Structures are given as C-alpha cells and as structure tokens.
Amino acid sequence: MDLNGLRVMGIDPGLTRCGLSVVQAGHGRAVFPVAVGVVRTPAAEDLTGRLLRLSNSVNEWMDDYQPDVVAIERIFERGNVSTVMHTAHAVGVLVLSAAQRGIPVHMYTPSEVKKAISGNGRADKKQMTIMITRILGLSEPPKPADAADALALAVCHCWRAPLLARQAALTSVPRQGQHP
Predict the structure, then answer these.
(1) Given Cys at both, which of 9, 41, 108, 118 links 123, Cβ 3.0 to 4.6 Å?
(2) Which is the CATH superfamily of the domain at 7-168?
(3) Is 2 annotated as a binding residue?
C-alpha cells in the first residue's frame, strides 16, 4: 500500500511542554520533516488558561499544516497522579482539535514508538534522538526531547500506516456468503 504524500502530525502531549511535529511520507520508508516545535504553558497559570493556550496552538498548527492523520502518545501511569491527570486533560484538548476537523487519531505507547524507530522498545532518550536525527536527515538533533518525541511519533505512524491500511481493508471486505 503506497501512502506517499501522507502528512502526519506527531504530538508528544504535555501540559507544561507539548511537542508538535509534521512529517510527510515518501516512497517506502522515506519520511520528510515539515515542521517541529514545542508549545509551552506557564505552570503558574490556571488549568483552563493552559488548556486554552494548548488548544489555540494545536489548532493553528492543524490549520497551517493540514495533516491527514494525528499520531499521539498514549497516556500511561507514571506514578504521579497529578501529572497523569494534567496530561490526560491535554490529550483531550488535542484529540478534540483533530476530531473537530475529521482527522483520524492513532495512539502509540512509548515502547511501540521506541521499537519502531530504534528496534528496541527500551531505547533511552539519547538513542531515540540520534535515530530520529538520522532517519529524517536533520543537520542537528531536535531539542528539547519533546520535539524529538513528536517527530518519532509521526515517523512511527508513517511506517505503520501501510499495515493499518491493509488491516482496515481486510476488515471492510465482506466474507464469502455474507451480505455487505
């Protein structure tokens, strides 16, 4: 399945720092960087103000870059309930922005992304940054780590999209003897 030209927005969700990226799939495993950045919200601001800042930023990115799909990190328990809750609020705002535009969202665990990018589901931040810099042919590593993570999420989806498309096609084809 050729998904050449697929534009993927990668999001590393966070309330204090949210990594955003856009890449475009080429032929085979080629992926080209389009944009990368980090949205920051001040910790001293109230939750609603921070979520509004995050929403405004992600909406601007989606309007500017017109992604076909969003790849976002799946929330997992990190031990600090407050951090998980703030990240969950941020994810809700980010997913809503995509849903309002009819953009499909795919969620990946950190280990899925690490395995796709480095071949090792336990790769550390340094290994991931080196690999994403190499894969995208960047002249220097993306900083901070949230930016590199957002790029890794987008590349992960580009490489998984053909399999996901084949799986979707198989489940939509009626079996012999079944009515559509």
Answers:
(1) 118
(2) Ribonuclease H-like superfamily/Ribonuclease H (3.30.420.10)
(3) no
Question: What residue spans define the domains of the chain?
Answer: 7-168
Say if residue 12 carries a ligand binding annotation. Answer: yes
Burial of 146 (0-12, 13-18, 19+ CB in 10 A): buried
DSSP string, 25-89: E-STT-EEEEEEEEEE--TTS-HHHHHHHHHHHHHHHHHHH--SEEEEEPP---S-HHHHHHHHH
Active site residue 73: yes
With a CB cutoff of 8 Å and minimum separation 6, the contacts of 34 are 7, 21, 22, 23, 24, 65
Band of residue 76 on the pLDDT scale cut at 50, 70, 90: confident
pLDDT of residue 83: 83
Residue-wise pLDDT tens digits, 21-47: 999 999 889 999 999 999 999 999 999
Unique residue bearing structure tokens 């930023």: 57
| Residue 73 labeled ligand binder | yes
pLDDT at 78 over 70: no
